[in-house]
Protein: 4-hydroxythreonine-4-phosphate dehydrogenase
Organism: Actinomadura verrucosospora
Amino acid sequence: MRTVIVADDLTGAADSVVAFAGAAVALDPEHAWPDACVVAADTDSRYAPPEVAQARVRAAVRRAERAGARVVKKIDSTLRGHVAAEVAAAADALGARLVVVAPAFPATGRTTVGGVVHVDGRPLSERRHGGDVAALLGEAGMRVRTMGLAKVREPGLDARFAQTGGVIVCDGETDADLDAVAAAVPEGALLVGSGGVTAALAGRARAPRAVRVKSGPSLVVVGSYSDLARSQRLALIEAGWTPVTLRPDGLGPDEADKAVRDALTKGDVVLSVDPDVPVDRSRAFATAQALAQAAACAAPDAAVLAATGGETARAVLAALGAAELRPVGEPEPGVVASRVPGTDALFVTKAGAFGDRETLARVLRAVSDQEE
């Protein structure tokens, strides 16, 4: 094991290692890690209490350090989760004198300009800190400076990093900007970023798009509550997929399992909560479990099993009894196809906020075209 990428959710963990050949995702970092040169340790801490998130990150970093691996801290490209607390915990556990933060992910429309995260050219205004990365990290007591695009693109970036300490937030608009940052970070420093900077570490050798799958129907589980995920669900239905919906007061577990399996005998299926029922986030965990149980029971009948949202994907894998993922391809930026040891279905993950209305339909159509 030469590199460990510590991520706070499953979809981000998968995306962070898909560019590396033979990489794996550890779904339970407290137990055995996969035998791979590059491992993403999913601490499953995005929605945990801050102190729990920090403890999990410290444990993963210390374990990686004991194994002699380089540590990279994966964060969400739109700064969701306990970004400041987890970066502070990772830096402390590593004893890093220098922390270089490069959150941009240009392939998915995420850039950093003036230290502020932008999505499709617009500042990330819905967060409390307005997308200002330095302000966010400052909440954890870190001394933070911002390095603008001109400095990132100047020759001698490695020397500038070597001569400084503290936390540096680097602007980035292109893959070339991230390539320069990743190449210049000195040994012993903590590199922090999203899938953009981990792809830079891998040398941009993103995995091949063509992934062979067995013949059969596809099952998509939409557990994300985002408006985009809902529109992607609707696009699948318009493309001829059969919807199966769960209501809090509707199908029981056995009925849901049967409904999904029966629908798969007729073709592709999209499983979700009922979009007409108001969102009750206090029931998010129970809802994810119900969706996951139905999907896991139907998995033997599906050639492709896909999940939107890290919580949903993790719940499905837990129901399948999976301990690891082996990413094998990236049909589109932010969408990862993986093998799950012990199952035949190809497992596709996508963050709920990634892509456009047609992303799921487009990706699954392309994957299905690769049938053996």
